[in-house]
Amino acid sequence: MRIAPVSEITTQTAVDAPPRLSALDTLESEAIHIIREVVAEFERPVLLFSGGKDSVVVLHLAAKAFWPARVPFPVLHVDTGHNFPEVIDFRDRTVERLGIRLEVAKVQDYLDDGRLQERADGTRNPLQTQPLLDAIAAGRHDAVFGGARRDEDKARAKERILSLRDEFGQWDPRNQRPELWDLYNGRHTVGQHVRAFPISNWTELDVWRYLEREGIELPPLYYAHEREVYRRDGMWRAVSEVSPPRADEHVERRVVRYRTVGDMSCTGAVESDAASVADVVREVATSTLTERGATRADDRISEAAMEDRKKDGYF
Amino acid sequence: MTHATQEQTLFRFATAGSVDDGKSTLVGRLLHDSKAILADQLESVARTSAERGFGGEPGAIDFALLTDGLRAEREQGITIDVAYRYFLTGRRSFILADCPGHVQYTRNMVTGAATADAVVVLVDARKGVLEQTRRHLAVVQLLRVPHVIVAVNKIDLLGYDEAAFAAVATDVSALVRDLGLPEAHVIPVSALAGDNVVERSANTPWYDGPALLELLETLPALDELESDLEAFRMPVQLVIRPQGALAHDVADPESYRDHRAFAGRISSGTVRVGDEVQVFPTGATTTVVGIDAGPVALESASAPQSVALRLADELDAARGSVFAASGSLPAARRELEASVFQLDPRPLVPGARVLVKSGTSTVQALVTAVHGRRDLTTLGLDPADRLEVNDIGQVALKLATELAVEPYAEHRRAGAFLVIHPHDGATLAAAIVTGATA
Fold first, then answer.
1. Which long-range contacts (CB under 8 A, 24 or more apart) does A111-119 make?
2. Hey, how many other C-beta atoms are within 10 angstroms of the C-beta on B436?
3. How many other β-carbons are positioned within 10 Å of the β-carbon of residue B402?
4. Using one digit for the tens of pLDDT, what is the confidence trace for B331-351?
């Protein structure tokens, strides 16, 4: 068997070929293609927008995909009632600046009228599913964009870019529709909807490099700041009304930042002095922990925590 | 993890193998040795490995736990669906599609391999070429994956014997030739011991080729092979007409009152401002006056960039239209000959009414004939009147509306299509155009 020497392989590239796109350019092009396909083929798309970095990137890509036209779909936020105030503020400023409509589904409303009950562990992340599915039905949204990435979790690593959900919002991981080339089959029957993940193939580092390159603003808590924190489950947790320390937990001021932004009751901060986007790119590139491993209590419940939530209709 | 630079390019590859040939171990080894597995993942896998008494010796790690992301997969110790993994080296950013090997899930391997620049097929050195190896390579041949790498694994269990490797390599070589595939890169590896995975091994002095990762870092990607070799083509996804609804950062709203741009992803070639282009199906000719990437105006753009084209004339073009370099307008086709991979459990039969999705068009179609199915032992086309799930076969279709399809071998993105169930929307088959007429 002849093995082509490395020197021979590299010279196969056409001499006058245009410069190869960088990995980031290729990922951007793929994401814009997906966003346009969904807008072209669906009646009422919506973007899940939390103000977190991944949904911020998807919104930026959507703005680029349709420029100079305005983003042609609204955004939807499932508010757990335990969100960081600075993230809610960022969310509101962003939609106002872009001139797009914001739909909010509130977990608190469901708790108030008894449709949902607070969990014993206090986390509200798993409670988001019902308000999300109701909001999708109420808005008659047939396609729901999300900023989920396959590198976040081993169940998400199995997700298609266009993922069909039944009328109960459920994901059936054992029977996913094949997905070939860049031909996305979004056909669905009444009651079904499709989740679309344009940045499926991006890593945490890709997201940060893109934020840096495009000069995209994020909520300030992604960067190093001083905060009152206490240690729980090996993570730094913020002191707040919804996440108070127990009597035996020692509160101190530390310089921290958030790698993921979710419910205050289950999102931890990491010690970091990365104050700028360039600092964060450097930090992420050399990190020895995954972002969810470092910061999410809800994914530690079991080895299949994410898979179980996704099957029930979580994003 | 290796530090990132802006110059890295993307390379997509898929791994496939038969049950128990060590594919998950190879993937785990590749990720581990390229430092893509982070401490908390490793700790979690090590903990579960220990709980299950993996390998019998303390500290042994079951790498399959890293990629088998579903509960059912971990319980059964098999891969059901493709898992995507990501890692970086100094030269490239890799997307790894870890595909199932089990015959029942071959259809999921098709998903993983369709966009791959290379496929790594695993063969157990002790077992040699199996039925599943033939099946995987037949899929690779159908999809025309540019590079085939065969990793002959567990060579350590044969005492790194050169003759044993050569025997497998000879069989692979014959199979690849019979299938009409380009020459395969065959590498002796031990995923468990790490031989020739990331670094060349001292245990195989008789092998003077590259290690697996070296090869993956240097093989040209699909778009490197194809770029500038084909005429410009871009299927229109949608038309951007802001009318009153302008983006917040448009500086001069008045000048965008009548703005019209055709959004799409370039499927082949390069387009430059000033180029004359033609539109399918009307054949009308016009000139490109602007290429927009969001608010940035470009002088030129190439596959696979997503752009929006502004044109000198008002043309009749919409989703489904295709822009092409002037003089290279694709022909309108209504009769197709295609190789298909049957994905759906319901068999594909002559007379079936289906939908065909190609580029940005979806049209009604009729399966006019099933010519036969490929026999994986003889590799010949056996007569058949239907295609069952996981069959590769040859069919003819008649389209209700003419499309700008082209043979897959000449223009990949215009030659691939989906066969879709007209009522429930299921993707029935993956298909590539082998011949077409008006």
1. A111/A81
2. 22
3. 16
4. 999 999 999 999 999 999 999
Cα–Cα distance for residue pair B282/B315, rounded to 1 Å: 9
The closest alpha carbon to B83, from A175, A197, A157, belongs to A157
Strand, helix or coil for residue A84 = coil
List CB contacts of A305: < 8 A, sequence separation 6 or more: A298, A299
What span, in angstroms and rounded, lies between the C-alpha atoms of B78 and B2?
30
DSSP states of B228-241 as a string?
Answer: TTS--EEE--EEE-
pTM of the model: 0.91
Q: Which residues contact B193 (CB under 8 A, 6 or more apart)?
A: B156, B203
> In the predicted model, is pLDDT for residue B177 greater than 90?
yes
Contact at CB, A180 and B85, closer than 8 angstroms? no
Contact: B71, A304; criterion CB under 8 Å: yes
Alpha helices (runs of H) in A177-289, residue ranges in sequence order: 204-214, 277-286
Chain B residues in contact with A150 by the CB 8 A cut-off are 84, 86
Q: Least CB-CB distance to B69: which of A63, A158, A176?
A: A158
Phi-psi region of B315 (alpha: psi -120 to 50; beta: other; left: phi over 0): beta
Cβ contact B111–A180 (<8 Å): yes
Asked if the Cβ–Cβ distance from B86 to A286 is below 8 Å, we say no
Give the angle A28-A32-A36 at the CA atoms, nearest 5°. 175
CB A277 within 8 A of CB A208: yes
Is the interface score ipTM higher than 0.95? no
Element (H, E) at B131: helix B131-143
Bridging pattern class, strands A75-79 and A102-106: parallel
Task: Report residue A92 as tokens.
Answer: 């509101």
Q: What is the pLDDT of residues B219-239, one digit of tens each?
A: 999 877 764 457 899 999 999
Q: Give the Cα separation of B355 and B428 in Å (integer).
A: 10
Residue with tokens 């739909």: A103
